[in-house]
Write a structure and sequence with these properties.
With 345 residues, the protein is α+β, with helices and mostly antiparallel strands. Helix content is 33%, strand content 26%. It contains 11 helices and 14 strands.
């Protein structure tokens, strides 16, 4: 897997990302161009036209993200609109994509440990376009995240011990005056604490349906987002779990559930946590992520004859120690491991 270290201004960070991941970005654009055509019947120029609806709010409130995306475009030799479309791909899809995941935040009852973890499930064709990124920028926490090439915000941990994961939710509605989902993830990773991250997202709003799980050494909170607002899911006995459907009260018009197995996986992850006991550990969480009950539509998902969606990577974050372990591929048979926690001072 390609690993990239970026530093400097937003544009400089984007340039480094674009230059080093040039091939993966080109393939990522090609992947989504084909996927959008299949799911929406829209051509790529039409997709880019929809993406530009976010330009006014981004230019008004989030210029650093625009600068970084411009750098990615310049570095990779792609049009800016192509990079913008990648970064707002969730909003363009209007809940049509079926990227399923299982996520958990688990804090020790003895206040000794706090963990955040996830299996990220998506179409295997995109696995080769995943990249590991470490970002250093002035007056903000350092970031280590796993992302799709060309996308500037995804799943990861920062040097303040703030981590974030993402669950897709299949629901209609988008608000072009709010922050796109993947840029919301980046906003969390640029925050000094869970509390600060949540406050920033609640102030900005998130443009479309998703679940964002935010955690730090003090614990975690789930944020069920829609174009109509954000519903918080606090910890119960030190635990928050989520899959791919709304759990809390919502006014969002949820469509047909993306994954019929989402309720099963939610019940299963809760069952496994209960069986593991009250004290979390890396080993216990890794064992949960390997679970194959209800295979192939299990926590550790596998492809089927009807779907190429599978677990493409797993992640376990130790938030008190500010350490993260990514495992590429299904966690029962990891193909590569990336460990981070030695933050540059």
């Amino acid at each position: 897997m390609l690993s990239i270290e970026c530093e400097g201004s937003p544009r400089e960070i984007g340039l480094t990302h674009g230059r080093i991941a040039k091939d993966q970005i080109r393939c990522s654009i090609r992947f989504y161009e084909q996927l959008f055509r299949e799911k929406t019947s829209l051509s790529w120029p039409e997709i880019c036209q929809v993406a530009r609806k976010f330009m006014p709010v981004l230019a008004d409130k989030w210029t650093s993200y625009l600068d970084e995306m411009q750098g990615v475009a310049e570095g990779s030799g792609q049009d800016f609109d192509d990079i913008l479309a990648l970064n707002v791909r969730t909003e363009i899809a209007y809940g049509m994509f079926n990227d399923g995941c299982t996520a958990l935040s688990w804090k020790s009852q003895k206040d000794e440990n706090s963990f955040l973890a996830q299996n990220w499930d998506w179409q295997h064709e995109q696995k080769g376009n995943l990249i590991s990124m470490t970002i250093y920028q002035a007056e903000k926490p350092a970031i280590h995240m796993m992302t799709e090439a060309g996308i500037i915000g995804k799943i990861g941990l920062n040097s303040s011990g703030v981590g974030v994961t993402l669950n897709a939710i299949k629901a209609k509605g988008v608000d072009f005056q709010r922050l796109p989902c993947h840029l919301a993830l980046r906003t969390v990773l640029e925050s000094q604490s869970r509390e600060a991250a949540v406050a920033r997202l609640e102030d900005a709003g998130v443009a479309s349906a998703c679940h964002i799980l935010v955690a730090d050494p003090t614990g975690g909170v789930g944020l069920e987002c829609s174009a109509k607002g954000i519903v918080s899911l606090p910890m119960t006995n030190g635990i928050v779990t989520h899959t791919n459907h709304y759990i809390g009260p919502t006014d969002a018009p949820e469509s047909k559930m993306a994954f019929p197995d989402s309720p099963f996986r939610l019940a299963r992850v809760r069952e496994l946590i209960h069986e593991a006991g009250s004290e979390p550990s890396v080993q216990r969480i890794e064992n949960i992520l390997k679970d194959e009950k209800n295979y192939p539509c299990s926590i550790c998902r596998a492809e089927t004859k009807d779907s190429t969606v599978a677990t493409l990577f797993s992640v376990v974050m130790d938030l008190k120690r500010k350490a993260v372990v990514f495992k590429l591929g299904r966690p029962v048979h990891p193909e590569a491991t990336i460990v981070s926690g030695d933050w540059r001072k």
